[in-house]
Design goal:
Layout lengths: L16 H16 L17 E5 L2 E5 L6 E5 L2
Antiparallel strand pairs: 1-2, 2-3
Length: 74
């Protein structure tokens, strides 16, 4: 019998490309619409994301879990 609580953390490197896109879907939609501030990391939930969009290139990073996403709109 197990006692206590165990926490399992998912790292960005644990996700394949499709899983990462699904996880970031809501954030990417908001960034594409010009809303780049105030997004919490959906992977670690511990930090605010740094999101930018410039000339169709989207960058989403998290300092806490080291998420580093780069993609293109379109």
């Amino acid at each position: 019998m197990l006692t206590g609580a165990a926490e399992v953390y998912v790292q960005p490197s644990d996700l394949d490309q499709e899983e990462l896109l699904m996880t970031l879907g809501d954030v990417l939609t908001q960034v594409a619409a010009g809303h780049t501030d105030g997004h919490r990391c959906p992977i670690c939930e511990n930090a605010e994301l740094s999101c930018t969009e410039a000339h169709g290139e989207v960058t989403v990073t998290c300092a806490a879990c080291r998420l580093d996403f780069h993609g293109w709109l379109g």
